[in-house]
Protein backbone atom coordinates (compact mmCIF):
# COMPACT_ATOMS: atom_id res chain seq x y z
CA UNK A 1 0.00 0.00 0.00
CA UNK A 2 2.81 2.43 0.91
CA UNK A 3 4.61 1.84 -2.40
CA UNK A 4 1.35 2.31 -4.33
CA UNK A 5 0.65 5.57 -2.47
CA UNK A 6 4.17 6.82 -3.19
CA UNK A 7 3.78 6.16 -6.91
CA UNK A 8 0.42 7.94 -7.04
CA UNK A 9 1.76 10.96 -5.15
CA UNK A 10 4.85 11.03 -7.35
CA UNK A 11 2.71 10.93 -10.49
CA UNK A 12 0.54 13.76 -9.19
CA UNK A 13 3.62 15.80 -8.28
CA UNK A 14 5.13 15.42 -11.74
CA UNK A 15 1.85 16.47 -13.33
CA UNK A 16 1.70 19.52 -11.07
CA UNK A 17 5.30 20.49 -11.80
CA UNK A 18 4.64 20.14 -15.52
CA UNK A 19 1.56 22.37 -15.14
CA UNK A 20 3.63 25.03 -13.35
CA UNK A 21 6.34 24.85 -16.00
CA UNK A 22 3.85 25.39 -18.83
CA UNK A 23 2.69 28.55 -17.05
CA UNK A 24 6.17 29.92 -16.53
CA UNK A 25 6.24 29.09 -12.80
CA UNK A 26 9.61 27.52 -12.06
CA UNK A 27 9.41 24.30 -10.01
CA UNK A 28 12.89 24.86 -8.54
CA UNK A 29 11.50 27.80 -6.55
CA UNK A 30 9.35 25.27 -4.68
CA UNK A 31 12.29 23.33 -3.32
CA UNK A 32 12.99 23.84 0.39
CA UNK A 33 16.51 24.90 1.31
CA UNK A 34 17.43 21.45 2.62
CA UNK A 35 16.70 19.96 -0.83
CA UNK A 36 19.53 22.06 -2.30
CA UNK A 37 21.95 21.14 0.50
CA UNK A 38 23.93 18.59 -1.61
CA UNK A 39 24.76 21.44 -4.02
CA UNK A 40 25.97 23.87 -1.36
CA UNK A 41 29.58 24.35 -0.24
CA UNK A 42 31.67 26.34 2.18
CA UNK A 43 34.42 27.48 -0.16
CA UNK A 44 36.01 24.26 -1.43
CA UNK A 45 34.41 22.04 1.20
CA UNK A 46 31.02 20.31 1.25
CA UNK A 47 28.71 21.88 3.82
CA UNK A 48 28.75 20.26 7.28
CA UNK A 49 25.21 19.00 6.70
CA UNK A 50 26.50 16.40 4.25
CA UNK A 51 29.00 15.04 6.75
CA UNK A 52 26.31 14.98 9.43
CA UNK A 53 23.97 13.14 7.06
CA UNK A 54 26.64 10.51 6.35
CA UNK A 55 27.40 10.05 10.04
CA UNK A 56 23.70 9.71 10.84
CA UNK A 57 23.00 7.25 8.03
CA UNK A 58 24.85 7.02 4.68
CA UNK A 59 21.48 6.23 3.06
CA UNK A 60 18.84 8.49 4.52
CA UNK A 61 15.38 9.67 3.57
CA UNK A 62 15.59 12.95 1.67
CA UNK A 63 12.16 14.61 1.80
CA UNK A 64 11.07 16.54 -1.26
CA UNK A 65 7.85 18.48 -1.95
CA UNK A 66 4.56 16.69 -2.68
CA UNK A 67 5.60 13.55 -0.86
CA UNK A 68 8.08 12.50 -3.54
CA UNK A 69 10.22 9.77 -1.98
CA UNK A 70 13.96 10.18 -2.43
CA UNK A 71 17.07 8.92 -0.65
CA UNK A 72 20.37 10.76 -0.24
CA UNK A 73 23.42 8.51 -0.47
CA UNK A 74 26.50 10.01 1.19
CA UNK A 75 28.69 7.01 2.09
CA UNK A 76 31.45 5.88 -0.26
CA UNK A 77 30.64 2.16 -0.08
CA UNK A 78 26.92 2.78 -0.55
CA UNK A 79 27.56 5.22 -3.40
CA UNK A 80 29.68 2.65 -5.26
CA UNK A 81 26.91 0.10 -4.77
CA UNK A 82 24.34 2.41 -6.35
CA UNK A 83 26.56 3.59 -9.20
CA UNK A 84 27.76 0.07 -9.98
CA UNK A 85 24.32 -1.54 -9.95
CA UNK A 86 22.93 -2.45 -13.36
CA UNK A 87 19.69 -4.09 -12.28
CA UNK A 88 16.74 -2.38 -10.64
CA UNK A 89 17.90 1.22 -11.16
CA UNK A 90 17.18 3.48 -14.12
CA UNK A 91 18.84 6.66 -15.38
CA UNK A 92 16.15 7.39 -17.95
CA UNK A 93 15.50 11.14 -18.19
CA UNK A 94 11.74 10.63 -18.19
CA UNK A 95 11.85 9.53 -14.56
CA UNK A 96 13.48 12.81 -13.59
CA UNK A 97 10.88 15.23 -14.83
CA UNK A 98 7.94 13.13 -16.02
CA UNK A 99 7.23 12.93 -19.71
CA UNK A 100 4.55 15.60 -19.40
CA UNK A 101 7.15 18.09 -18.18
CA UNK A 102 9.62 17.77 -21.05
CA UNK A 103 9.10 19.74 -24.22
CA UNK A 104 10.25 18.39 -27.55
CA UNK A 105 14.00 18.86 -27.96
CA UNK A 106 14.74 19.22 -24.23
CA UNK A 107 15.66 15.60 -23.45
CA UNK A 108 19.48 15.46 -23.46
CA UNK A 109 19.55 11.69 -24.01
CA UNK A 110 23.11 10.57 -24.71
CA UNK A 111 24.93 8.28 -22.31
CA UNK A 112 24.00 9.89 -19.01
CA UNK A 113 20.23 9.66 -19.29
CA UNK A 114 19.75 6.32 -21.04
CA UNK A 115 19.60 2.72 -19.82
CA UNK A 116 20.82 -0.53 -21.36
CA UNK A 117 20.50 -1.78 -24.01
CA UNK A 118 20.41 1.69 -25.62
CA UNK A 119 23.20 2.91 -23.36
CA UNK A 120 25.29 -0.18 -24.18
CA UNK A 121 24.88 0.43 -27.93
CA UNK A 122 25.91 4.09 -27.73
CA UNK A 123 28.86 3.51 -25.40
CA UNK A 124 30.15 0.72 -27.64
CA UNK A 125 30.36 3.22 -30.50
CA UNK A 126 32.21 5.83 -28.45
CA UNK A 127 34.60 3.72 -26.37
CA UNK A 128 37.20 3.07 -29.12
CA UNK A 129 37.70 6.83 -29.47
CA UNK A 130 38.58 7.21 -25.79
CA UNK A 131 41.25 4.55 -25.40
CA UNK A 132 44.67 5.72 -24.20
CA UNK A 133 46.12 5.00 -27.63
CA UNK A 134 43.56 7.13 -29.47
CA UNK A 135 43.78 9.95 -26.95
CA UNK A 136 47.58 10.00 -27.12
CA UNK A 137 47.31 11.78 -30.45
CA UNK A 138 45.77 14.74 -28.62
CA UNK A 139 48.72 15.05 -26.21
CA UNK A 140 50.86 17.37 -28.36
CA UNK A 141 47.82 19.48 -29.22
CA UNK A 142 46.87 19.88 -25.52
CA UNK A 143 50.43 21.04 -24.83
CA UNK A 144 50.12 23.60 -27.64
CA UNK A 145 46.79 24.79 -26.28
CA UNK A 146 48.17 25.23 -22.75
CA UNK A 147 51.29 27.04 -23.98
CA UNK A 148 49.12 29.30 -26.12
CA UNK A 149 47.00 30.29 -23.15
CA UNK A 150 50.09 31.00 -21.05
CA UNK A 151 51.45 33.23 -23.83
CA UNK A 152 48.13 35.07 -23.96
CA UNK A 153 48.17 35.59 -20.18
CA UNK A 154 51.72 36.97 -20.35
CA UNK A 155 50.68 39.39 -23.10
CA UNK A 156 47.75 40.62 -21.01
CA UNK A 157 50.00 41.21 -18.02
CA UNK A 158 52.63 42.98 -20.15
CA UNK A 159 49.94 45.31 -21.46
CA UNK A 160 48.81 46.11 -17.94
CA UNK A 161 45.54 44.22 -18.36
CA UNK A 162 44.05 42.10 -15.55
CA UNK A 163 44.48 38.34 -15.79
CA UNK A 164 41.59 36.09 -14.77
CA UNK A 165 42.53 32.41 -14.44
CA UNK A 166 38.94 31.33 -15.11
CA UNK A 167 38.50 33.40 -18.27
CA UNK A 168 42.06 33.21 -19.61
CA UNK A 169 43.20 29.74 -18.55
CA UNK A 170 40.70 27.34 -16.99
CA UNK A 171 37.87 27.78 -19.50
CA UNK A 172 39.66 28.03 -22.87
CA UNK A 173 41.88 24.97 -22.35
CA UNK A 174 39.07 22.37 -22.17
CA UNK A 175 37.03 24.41 -24.64
CA UNK A 176 39.77 24.25 -27.26
CA UNK A 177 40.47 20.60 -26.45
CA UNK A 178 36.85 19.48 -26.81
CA UNK A 179 36.57 21.44 -30.07
CA UNK A 180 39.66 19.62 -31.29
CA UNK A 181 38.27 16.25 -30.21
CA UNK A 182 34.84 16.68 -31.76
CA UNK A 183 35.89 18.64 -34.80
CA UNK A 184 33.77 21.71 -33.96
CA UNK A 185 34.98 25.10 -35.25
CA UNK A 186 36.60 26.94 -32.36
CA UNK A 187 35.15 30.26 -33.52
CA UNK A 188 31.75 28.89 -32.44
CA UNK A 189 32.96 28.14 -28.90
CA UNK A 190 31.25 31.09 -27.21
CA UNK A 191 27.81 29.74 -28.01
CA UNK A 192 28.17 26.26 -26.55
CA UNK A 193 30.41 27.51 -23.73
CA UNK A 194 27.63 29.75 -22.43
CA UNK A 195 25.02 27.01 -22.82
CA UNK A 196 27.23 24.51 -21.01
CA UNK A 197 27.82 26.72 -17.97
CA UNK A 198 24.21 27.86 -17.58
CA UNK A 199 22.62 24.42 -17.70
CA UNK A 200 24.29 23.27 -14.48
CA UNK A 201 23.19 26.29 -12.44
CA UNK A 202 19.92 25.46 -10.71
CA UNK A 203 19.79 28.93 -9.17
CA UNK A 204 18.62 30.14 -12.57
CA UNK A 205 15.69 27.72 -12.36
CA UNK A 206 14.68 24.51 -14.08
CA UNK A 207 13.06 26.39 -16.96
CA UNK A 208 16.37 28.03 -17.85
CA UNK A 209 18.16 24.68 -17.55
CA UNK A 210 15.77 23.04 -20.01
CA UNK A 211 15.98 26.01 -22.37
CA UNK A 212 19.76 25.72 -22.37
CA UNK A 213 19.56 21.99 -23.09
CA UNK A 214 17.23 22.75 -25.98
CA UNK A 215 19.54 25.47 -27.32
CA UNK A 216 22.60 23.25 -27.10
CA UNK A 217 20.90 20.37 -28.92
CA UNK A 218 19.58 22.69 -31.62
CA UNK A 219 23.07 24.10 -32.21
CA UNK A 220 24.63 20.63 -32.33
CA UNK A 221 22.03 19.29 -34.75
CA UNK A 222 23.19 21.97 -37.16
CA UNK A 223 26.82 20.90 -36.64
CA UNK A 224 25.92 17.26 -37.28
CA UNK A 225 23.95 18.09 -40.43
CA UNK A 226 26.90 20.06 -41.82
CA UNK A 227 29.26 17.20 -41.03
CA UNK A 228 27.00 14.66 -42.72
CA UNK A 229 27.63 16.60 -45.91
CA UNK A 230 31.34 17.01 -45.27
CA UNK A 231 32.65 14.86 -42.37
CA UNK A 232 35.54 16.48 -40.52
CA UNK A 233 38.60 14.89 -38.95
CA UNK A 234 37.22 14.96 -35.40
CA UNK A 235 35.12 12.48 -33.46
CA UNK A 236 31.83 13.57 -35.03
CA UNK A 237 33.18 13.11 -38.53
CA UNK A 238 34.60 9.72 -37.58
CA UNK A 239 31.29 8.56 -36.12
CA UNK A 240 29.47 9.70 -39.25
CA UNK A 241 31.92 7.87 -41.51
CA UNK A 242 31.91 4.66 -39.45
CA UNK A 243 28.37 4.59 -38.03
CA UNK A 244 26.40 7.19 -39.95
CA UNK A 245 23.68 4.68 -40.82
CA UNK A 246 23.34 3.52 -37.20
CA UNK A 247 23.02 6.96 -35.61
CA UNK A 248 20.43 9.54 -36.58
CA UNK A 249 21.01 13.27 -36.26
CA UNK A 250 19.35 13.52 -32.85
CA UNK A 251 21.46 10.70 -31.40
CA UNK A 252 24.68 12.23 -32.69
CA UNK A 253 23.69 15.64 -31.32
CA UNK A 254 22.87 14.09 -27.93
CA UNK A 255 26.20 12.26 -27.80
CA UNK A 256 28.09 15.42 -28.73
CA UNK A 257 26.09 17.38 -26.16
CA UNK A 258 27.07 14.95 -23.42
CA UNK A 259 30.73 15.14 -24.39
CA UNK A 260 30.67 18.93 -24.62
CA UNK A 261 28.96 19.56 -21.32
CA UNK A 262 30.73 16.73 -19.53
CA UNK A 263 34.17 17.57 -20.87
CA UNK A 264 34.06 21.35 -20.81
CA UNK A 265 32.47 22.57 -17.60
CA UNK A 266 33.91 19.87 -15.36
CA UNK A 267 37.50 20.32 -16.56
CA UNK A 268 37.20 24.11 -16.45
CA UNK A 269 35.98 23.94 -12.85
CA UNK A 270 38.77 21.54 -11.89
CA UNK A 271 41.43 23.77 -13.42
CA UNK A 272 40.12 26.87 -11.62
CA UNK A 273 39.48 25.30 -8.23
CA UNK A 274 42.72 23.32 -8.42
CA UNK A 275 44.56 26.59 -8.98
CA UNK A 276 42.93 27.89 -5.79
CA UNK A 277 44.27 24.87 -3.91
CA UNK A 278 47.75 25.65 -5.24
CA UNK A 279 47.51 29.32 -4.31
CA UNK A 280 46.56 28.53 -0.73
CA UNK A 281 49.08 25.70 -0.26
CA UNK A 282 52.72 26.69 -0.92
CA UNK A 283 53.94 23.13 -0.36
CA UNK A 284 51.69 21.74 -3.10
CA UNK A 285 52.66 24.66 -5.33
CA UNK A 286 56.35 23.86 -4.96
CA UNK A 287 55.77 20.11 -5.33
CA UNK A 288 53.93 20.39 -8.66
CA UNK A 289 56.28 23.10 -9.94
CA UNK A 290 59.57 21.43 -9.04
CA UNK A 291 59.08 17.65 -9.02
CA UNK A 292 58.49 15.98 -12.41
CA UNK A 293 55.89 13.28 -12.03
CA UNK A 294 54.41 14.66 -8.82
CA UNK A 295 51.46 16.01 -10.77
CA UNK A 296 49.99 12.51 -11.14
CA UNK A 297 49.39 12.08 -7.41
CA UNK A 298 48.40 15.73 -7.07
CA UNK A 299 45.69 15.38 -9.73
CA UNK A 300 44.25 12.18 -8.24
CA UNK A 301 44.04 13.71 -4.78
CA UNK A 302 42.58 16.88 -6.27
CA UNK A 303 39.87 14.90 -8.04
CA UNK A 304 38.91 13.24 -4.76
CA UNK A 305 39.14 16.38 -2.68
CA UNK A 306 37.18 18.67 -5.01
CA UNK A 307 34.70 16.26 -6.67
CA UNK A 308 33.38 19.15 -8.73
CA UNK A 309 30.46 17.07 -10.05
CA UNK A 310 28.56 17.22 -6.79
CA UNK A 311 25.83 14.67 -7.47
CA UNK A 312 25.64 11.79 -9.91
CA UNK A 313 22.87 11.39 -12.46
CA UNK A 314 19.75 10.58 -10.41
CA UNK A 315 18.79 6.91 -10.27
CA UNK A 316 15.22 5.64 -9.93
CA UNK A 317 14.32 2.27 -8.49
CA UNK A 318 12.46 0.00 -10.90
CA UNK A 319 12.04 -2.70 -8.24
CA UNK A 320 12.08 -2.99 -4.47
CA UNK A 321 15.57 -3.39 -2.99
CA UNK A 322 17.69 -2.93 0.12
CA UNK A 323 20.63 -0.54 0.23
CA UNK A 324 22.77 0.00 3.29
CA UNK A 325 20.15 -1.76 5.39
CA UNK A 326 17.44 0.63 4.12
CA UNK A 327 14.38 -0.58 2.22
CA UNK A 328 14.04 1.22 -1.13
CA UNK A 329 10.68 0.95 -2.88
CA UNK A 330 10.01 0.81 -6.58
CA UNK A 331 9.63 4.37 -7.87
CA UNK A 332 11.91 5.95 -5.25
CA UNK A 333 14.68 8.29 -6.37
CA UNK A 334 18.33 7.98 -5.30
CA UNK A 335 20.64 11.00 -5.17
CA UNK A 336 24.31 10.08 -4.80
CA UNK A 337 26.44 12.85 -3.31
CA UNK A 338 29.86 12.35 -4.88
CA UNK A 339 31.38 15.18 -2.85
CA UNK A 340 30.24 13.56 0.41
CA UNK A 341 31.27 10.04 -0.64
CA UNK A 342 34.78 11.19 -1.53
CA UNK A 343 35.18 12.76 1.94
CA UNK A 344 34.13 9.54 3.70
CA UNK A 345 36.67 8.51 6.37
CA UNK A 346 36.05 4.91 5.31
CA UNK A 347 37.73 5.82 2.01
CA UNK A 348 40.75 7.69 3.38
CA UNK A 349 41.99 8.78 6.78
CA UNK A 350 41.66 12.49 7.53
CA UNK A 351 39.52 13.04 4.40
CA UNK A 352 39.07 16.79 4.95
CA UNK A 353 42.81 17.34 4.51
CA UNK A 354 44.30 17.80 1.04
CA UNK A 355 47.43 15.67 0.74
CA UNK A 356 49.09 15.59 -2.71
CA UNK A 357 51.34 12.73 -1.59
CA UNK A 358 48.41 10.52 -0.60
CA UNK A 359 48.37 7.17 -2.46
CA UNK A 360 45.69 7.09 -5.17
CA UNK A 361 42.21 6.21 -3.93
CA UNK A 362 39.17 4.68 -5.69
CA UNK A 363 37.45 8.08 -5.67
CA UNK A 364 34.16 8.70 -7.43
CA UNK A 365 34.98 12.01 -9.12
CA UNK A 366 34.32 10.36 -12.50
CA UNK A 367 31.48 8.20 -11.22
CA UNK A 368 31.55 4.42 -11.27
CA UNK A 369 30.03 1.53 -13.20
CA UNK A 370 28.52 1.70 -16.66
CA UNK A 371 27.92 5.46 -16.39
CA UNK A 372 31.49 6.31 -15.38
CA UNK A 373 32.69 9.36 -17.33
CA UNK A 374 33.94 8.16 -20.69
CA UNK A 375 36.27 11.15 -20.97
CA UNK A 376 38.05 10.57 -17.65
CA UNK A 377 41.47 9.98 -19.21
CA UNK A 378 41.16 13.04 -21.42
CA UNK A 379 40.40 15.16 -18.35
CA UNK A 380 43.45 13.74 -16.58
CA UNK A 381 45.61 14.61 -19.59
CA UNK A 382 44.46 18.22 -19.50
CA UNK A 383 45.02 18.60 -15.75
CA UNK A 384 48.42 16.90 -15.76
CA UNK A 385 49.58 19.12 -18.61
CA UNK A 386 48.13 22.42 -17.44
CA UNK A 387 49.16 22.67 -13.78
CA UNK A 388 52.95 22.12 -14.10
CA UNK A 389 53.08 24.36 -17.17
CA UNK A 390 51.27 27.16 -15.33
CA UNK A 391 53.50 27.03 -12.26
CA UNK A 392 56.78 26.70 -14.16
CA UNK A 393 55.90 29.57 -16.46
CA UNK A 394 54.73 31.77 -13.58
CA UNK A 395 56.54 30.51 -10.46
CA UNK A 396 55.43 33.54 -8.42
CA UNK A 397 51.75 33.37 -9.35
CA UNK A 398 49.51 34.89 -6.67
CA UNK A 399 46.01 36.17 -6.07
CA UNK A 400 45.49 39.78 -7.20
CA UNK A 401 45.91 42.17 -4.22
CA UNK A 402 42.52 43.81 -4.75
CA UNK A 403 40.68 40.47 -4.96
CA UNK A 404 40.39 39.97 -1.21
CA UNK A 405 41.03 36.42 -0.03
CA UNK A 406 40.49 33.12 -1.79
CA UNK A 407 37.30 32.65 0.22
CA UNK A 408 35.96 35.96 -1.17
CA UNK A 409 35.89 34.71 -4.76
CA UNK A 410 32.54 34.35 -6.62
CA UNK A 411 31.75 30.67 -6.05
CA UNK A 412 28.60 29.27 -7.64
CA UNK A 413 25.79 29.07 -5.15
CA UNK A 414 23.71 26.17 -6.44
CA UNK A 415 25.30 24.25 -9.28
CA UNK A 416 25.55 20.55 -10.08
CA UNK A 417 29.10 21.25 -11.25
CA UNK A 418 30.72 23.37 -8.56
CA UNK A 419 33.01 26.16 -9.64
CA UNK A 420 34.11 29.74 -9.35
CA UNK A 421 33.24 32.44 -11.90
CA UNK A 422 36.43 34.50 -11.64
CA UNK A 423 39.92 34.22 -10.18
CA UNK A 424 42.01 37.39 -10.69
CA UNK A 425 45.75 36.80 -10.35
CA UNK A 426 49.12 38.49 -10.62
CA UNK A 427 51.63 36.51 -12.66
CA UNK A 428 54.72 37.80 -10.84
TrEMBL record:
Coiled coil ranges: none
InterPro entries the record matches: Cyt_P450, Cyt_P450_B, Cyt_P450_CS, Cyt_P450_sf
Record-given protein name: Cytochrome P450
Record keywords, A-Z: Heme, Iron, Metal-binding, Monooxygenase, Oxidoreductase
Pfam families associated with the record: p450
PANTHER family: P450, PUTATIVE (EUROFUNG)-RELATED (PTHR46696)
The keyword ATP-binding is assigned to this record: no
Family classification: Belongs to the cytochrome P450 family.
Domain of life: Bacteria
Amino acid sequence: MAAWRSRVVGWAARRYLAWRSRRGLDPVTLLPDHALMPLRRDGLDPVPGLREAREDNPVRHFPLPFGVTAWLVTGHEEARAVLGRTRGLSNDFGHLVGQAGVKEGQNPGGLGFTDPPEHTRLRRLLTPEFTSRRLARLGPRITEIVDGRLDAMAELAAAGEPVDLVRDFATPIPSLTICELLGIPYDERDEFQALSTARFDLFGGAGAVFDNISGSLQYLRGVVERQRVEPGEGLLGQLIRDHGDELDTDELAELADGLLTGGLETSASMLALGAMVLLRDPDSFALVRDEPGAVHGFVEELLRYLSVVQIAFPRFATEDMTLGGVAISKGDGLLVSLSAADRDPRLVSDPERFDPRRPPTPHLAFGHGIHRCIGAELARMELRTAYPALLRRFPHLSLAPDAGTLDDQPFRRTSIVYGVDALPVVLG
